[in-house]
Amino acid sequence: MMPLEEWRAYRHQSVIGPQGDLALILLQNIQGPARIDGIPGLWAPRTSANSGLQLTASISDGIAIDGRPVEGTITLETDVTVVQFSETRSAMATEQPGSEHLLAVWDTRIDAVQSFESISAYPYDPAWVIEGTYVAGEQGQTASFAHIADQEGSLRHHQSPGDIQFEVAGVSYRMTPFASGESLIIIFGDLTNGQETYGLGRMVLVTVNSDGSVVLDFNRAFLPSCAFSHHFNCPIPPRHNRLPFEVKAGEKQVVHR
């Protein structure tokens, strides 16, 4: 694990990068062949059984992949294939539970990138490195999360192999993570939200040890993507992931000049 200050520098660079959270200008669900205003090419879902997209374009569209112009129909692998429209504008196929055929478009020329200054954060506090226990669930278990841009009452089902149990000031708490690739992430709320920290909540990675113990380092709590761009559709902390105290650790807010 990289040192905290190095991790914070990495976070700063990642959000302003070519596919960084600040640069997102579009996140659109592609349900059938479609042309999108301001975006060249014809976009279609890969198949009903596979995530990803298909792009049909001609040389005149000016689209490139790995420096090569796109001519004809190609398949975009989810979160892998980068489509380049210009030096500053790019796109990828991506997904989230319930939306397997998303088109994400970024542009580093937008004001949010140009005015970005920093991600404010609390000073390191060893008291917020908390040990706990991983409580495994059933194989293939999912957990339900509402998302910020979805219709009220609708839920998306994320892979969630178990719960995380830990204590703060002698009181036991249990929170539900979701799986993101090989990682487990908890989206949590606390009493700093909307005051000192981003209103929706924050996220923290779970480190699971071979003996079933876990470490939650809230000094590395980070802002969800929707803190940087309103185009993201972030999960909302469920009630049992909302802590009844202040977590004065980790990232706080996006700071613009």
Map the helices and strands.
Elements: H1 4-15, E1 24-29, E2 34-36, E3 39-45, E4 53-57, E5 64-65, E6 68-69, E7 72-76, E8 83-84, E9 89-96, E10 99-107, H2 111-114, E11 116-121, E12 129-136, E13 142-145, E14 156-159, E15 162-168, E16 171-175, E17 178-180, E18 183-188, E19 202-208, E20 213-217, E21 251-256
Antiparallel strand pairs: 1-10, 2-3, 3-4, 4-7, 5-6, 8-9, 9-10, 11-21, 12-15, 12-20, 13-14, 15-16, 17-18, 18-19, 19-20
Cα separation of the termini = 31 Å
Rg calc = 20 Å
Helices and strands, in order, run as HEEEEEEEEEEHEEEEEEEEEEE
Helicity level: under 10%
β-sheet strand percentage: 35-45%
How many domains make up the 3D coordinates?
Answer: 2
Largest sheet: 7 strands, antiparallel
Q: What are the main properties of this structure?
A:
single chain, 257 residues, mainly beta, 2 domains, seven-stranded antiparallel beta sheet, four-stranded antiparallel beta sheet
Notes on the structure:
By secondary structure, this protein is mainly β. It folds into two domains: 21-107; 116-256, no CATH class. It is built from two helices and 21 strands. It has helices at 4-15, 111-114, and strands at residues 24-29, 34-36, 39-45, 53-57, 64-65, 68-69, 72-76, 83-84, 89-96, 99-107, 116-121, 129-136, 142-145, 156-159, 162-168, 171-175, 178-180, 183-188, 202-208, 213-217, 251-256. A seven-stranded antiparallel β-sheet has the order 16-15-12-20-19-18-17, with no helix packed on it. The chain has a four-stranded antiparallel β-sheet with strand order 1-10-9-8, with no helix packed on it. The longest helix has 12 residues, at 4-15. The radius of gyration is 20 Å and the shape is globular. The two termini are 31 Å apart. The model has no long low-confidence stretch (mean pLDDT 95).
